[in-house]
Amino acid sequence: MIKLRKSREQGHANLGWLDSYHSFSFSSYYDPAYMGYSVLRVINEDVIEPGRGFGMHSHRDMEIITYMLQGDLRHEDSLGNGSTIHAGDVQRMTAGSGISHSEFNASQTAQAHLLQIWLMPEQDGLSPGYEEKHFPLAAKHNRWCLIPSREGRDNCLKINQFVDLYASVLDQDVTLDMTLDSGRSYYLQVAQGRLQANGQDLQQGDAIRMDGETRLDIRALTQAEVLLFDLPPHHIPATQPI
Question: Which residues take part in binding Fe cation (predicted)?
Fold first, then answer.
């Protein structure tokens, strides 16, 4: 079964300094039909204006992944970490028993464009942690690149959940496929560009979720960047809006 989620149907908040689209219920956007998918709880596409950002705030019991598309983001946290991540970088933060952090556009002239992804961890109360890694274009170019996994295999980031997240940057007219496990759930998110996936026409911000499928076939209609989540079987999380 394949279900299409168009970007124009998502939640949207424009605060002037932040333009954000919400794939699932978040903040003031609430839709009981979109509380999450499997252990995937949040995908926010954020554009942050120069020099602006989120002051110090706290999280707990969530695996938080920041996928940079454009620009520079300055991160500081209560564990003592401080760094600036750039396009091609991916950051993983285990909120666990509690962590505070801030995120600011490190540039005074250019926007920062990113996807922030929240996954429910395999258990609550984990020790907070932080990790970041650069994934060069060559590793993602017209191929799948594993970004995080539970085991941290193939030199990717390590997350505390049974999830594999892949990324690819495709040239126009390139095709890419993957054999799927019909007992798992999959979520495909278009980060940039336009493509066809299993017969669905998708553009930036669009997504499809797949249950019981055995194959994914993609053709890029323009240069495109795409994320694919390999998830535990879908259930509807009993959570409230974040």
Answer: 57, 59, 101, 103
Assessment of whether the complete model's pTM goes beyond 0.85: yes
Spacing of C-alpha 82 from chain mean position: 21
> Is residue 160 one of the residues assigned to a domain?
yes
Rounded Cα–Cα distance for residues 207 and 51 (Å): 30
Q: Is 24 exposed, middle or buried (0-12, 13-18, 19+ CB in 10 A)?
A: buried
Which pair of structure tokens corresponds to residue 67?
């996928």
Q: What is the tens place of the pLDDT at every residue in 24-62?
A: 999 999 999 999 999 999 999 999 999 999 999 999 999
Place of tokens 């809006």: 241
Q: CATH no. for residue 91?
A: 2.60.120.10
- Ligand-binding annotation for 75, yes or no, is no
Per residue in 153-200, pLDDT (tens digit) is 999 999 999 999 999 999 999 999 999 999 999 999 999 999 999 999
101 among annotated binding-site residues? yes
Which residues have C-beta within 8 Å of that of residue 38, sequence separation ≥ 6?
185, 187, 229, 231, 232, 233, 234, 235
Tell me how many domains the chain contains: 1
Report the distance separating Cα 111 and Cα 211, nearest Å.
36
Q: Give one DSSP letter per residue of 74-135, joined into a string.
A: EEEETTS-EEEEETTEEEEEE-TT-EEEEEEE--SSS-EEEEEEEE--SSSSPPPEEEEEE-
* Contact of 47 with 12, CB cutoff 8 Å: no
Tokens at 20, concatenated? 């954000």
- Within a domain: 95: yes
